[in-house]
Structure prediction request, 102 residues.
Amino acid sequence: MAVKVSSRTAGEGPHGEVALARGQSVAMRMWRNESPATDKPMAARPYETVGYVVSGRAELTVNGEKVVLEPGDSWLVPEGADHNYTILESFTAIEATSPPAR
Prediction:
């Protein structure tokens, strides 16, 4: 069974993310126009995250290692890794989590 989710009508998650397609093993979400004033605290999550930068720039810190994410870049945050994002300029990205983030 195919399921379509439009980003124009998708629901917003508890952290401001746009909830996209979701299955039993993986889920997608979009962070749209995240502001540089948006601080993302250090966290460790019970799922693996991969992402792709659509626009803007952010600094990702994973287990103390920092990388700058720019349009066209993709990234991986391993399950359980301490990480945070510092938004450098209005940031839009797509993420997939496995298992699905709650």
The two ends are 23 Å apart (CA to CA). The chain is about 0% helix and 50% strand. Strands lie at 18-22, 27-34, 48-62, 65-69, 74-77, 83-98. Residues 23 and 70 are 28 Å apart (CA to CA).
